[in-house]
Write a structure and sequence with these properties.
Layout: E1 3-7, H1 12-23, E2 27-32, H2 35-47, E3 52-57, H3 63-66, H4 68-77, E4 82-85, H5 93-98, H6 100-128, E5 131-136, H7 149-169, E6 174-181, H8 201-213, E7 218-221, H9 224-234, H10 237-240
Parallel strand pairs: 1-2, 1-4, 2-3, 4-5, 5-6, 6-7
Length: 245
């Protein structure tokens, strides 16, 4: 039986993963900001087959508490095998351009709180000689675009951190999977008309579990985003800076 902590459990992709893990009989500990939603998710996951579901409310912008979530989950579940870090906010780019406080708030949730959780989980898994870290990044982290470079930068920092963890922990049998979704049909992206480029959260969850089973290091979801972002990364800066993206 797997013992799994999901930080940012209110994320649509995180919930999709939780449902799949519940069907496998996993024990789950959920962390998010909305207690009513957490309780409803817990009840649903038990019905779907989870061995047990515990949960805790946390403000993921409070960095002093972020690392403690790992210890709380381990105590609640009686062990820990996998940590999914899925919290994130999509800041208003224009607001960030006008006021650094908005940029800082985005980095506190998307980057710094994530790093706090990952730091504690990595130390635990290194000590026990096994474990899995799943980090929810974004294709936006591949290159800074004028329309969302604050969000992209917050995810790019997370990607480099995950790469370093992977290099450090590989010898300790700890898997570090970086997930890079494109547009996903979630409340966070509801304002965007994504058409055929927009994926369903359920497909994202299935893609994550498949990537874990294949021991992948990085996965783009859906897979076609790997080719799209390769083209964008290869554009010369003199060309790229003239594009409206």
């Amino acid at each position: 039986m797997k013992h799994i902590l999901i930080v940012g459990a209110g994320s649509a992709i995180a919930e999709a993963c939780a449902r799949l893990w519940a069907a496998e009989g996993a024990a789950l500990h959920l962390v998010a900001r909305d207690p009513a939603r957490l309780a409803a998710m817990a009840d649903d996951l038990v019905l779907r087959g989870a061995a047990r579901v515990s949960h805790g409310v946390a403000d993921l912008a409070r960095l002093d508490d972020a690392g403690d979530l790992v210890d709380a989950a381990r105590a609640a579940l009686g062990g820990l095998d996998l940590v999914l870090v899925a919290q994130g906010v999509l800041p208003d780019q224009r607001a960030c351009e006008l006021d650094f406080a908005a940029t800082r708030a985005a980095f506190e949730v998307n980057t710094l709180a994530s790093l706090a959780v990952l730091t504690r989980a990595a130390a635990l898994f290194e000590e026990q000689g096994r474990g899995t870290l799943v980090v929810l990044g974004s294709v936006a982290g591949d290159r800074g675009r004028g329309s969302n470079y604050v969000y992209g930068a917050s995810k790019a920092a997370l990607e480099v951190f995950a790469s370093g963890l992977r290099n450090r922990l590989a010898r300790h049998d700890v898997q570090v999977l970086l997930v890079k979704p494109g547009f996903v049909d979630t409340p966070m992206t509801a304002a965007f008309a994504n058409g055929e480029l927009c994926a369903r959260p359920a497909d994202g969850g299935l893609g994550i579990l498949r990537a874990l089973a294949a021991r992948r290091d990085v996965v783009y979801l859906p897979a076609f985003w790997r080719a799209i972002m390769l083209v964008i990364r290869l554009l010369p800066e003199r060309v790229f800076k003239r594009l409206t993206l």
